[in-house]
Amino acid sequence: MTSRRIAVVSAGISVPSSTRLLADRLAAATASTLRERGVDADVDVIELRDHGHELVDNVLTGFPGPSLAAALRLVTDADGLIAVTPTFSASYNGLFKLFFDVLEPESLAGKPALIAATGGTGRHSLALEHAVRPLFAYLRALVAPTSVFSAPEDWGAGGRTAQSLDQRIARAAGELADLVAVRPAQKAADPFLEPTPFEQLLNGS
């Protein structure tokens, strides 16, 4: 059985977090679908709330701290990415944006990705299409067609909206699994071996 690595980025703030819960369900569904395709999946979860201070320091100094560097490397080296954010002001939250801002250029180019979000009302679901998907298109990730949004009513036991969420999770996970399974396993070069030149950092580019 071949093996692939899936990185899961959760930008939830609270504990417990519906964002993390959705991320876990997407990861489990993707791993299960990959196994059905004869591919073993190793899943690494990155909680951005644990790296908040280092993210700000990275933006100010241009260099990641040890734990943030390890998290960035997990994403860079992964064969597939699941990225989940809570909806703040009709968009992704600041932690989510900071994390993807400090990734080295081209880190996500061609990488299969699944995007998802949580929010207090279903009216915020379009944030995935007008904010999150364009961000990953800019980063040149290969984003699965189905994005997954969950509102509080989606978590009811056995209800129609809960069944709809289950179906969307299964469809999105299947799309990501298909993209990951056909892509050769590869490990990206360590981005910290060739850091951004100091002159470029001074120019803010």
From TrEMBL:
Entry-linked InterPro entries: CE1759_FMN_reduct, Flavoprotein-like_sf, FMN_Rdtase-like_dom, NAD(P)H-dep_FMN_reductase
Positions in coiled-coil regions: none
Keyword NAD: no
One Pfam short name: FMN_red
Keyword Zinc-finger attributed: no
Domain NADPH-dependent FMN reductase-like: 5-155
Keywords: Flavoprotein, FMN, Oxidoreductase
UniProt-recorded name of the protein: FMN reductase
Lineage, top ranks: Bacteria, Bacillati, Actinomycetota, Actinomycetes, Pseudonocardiales
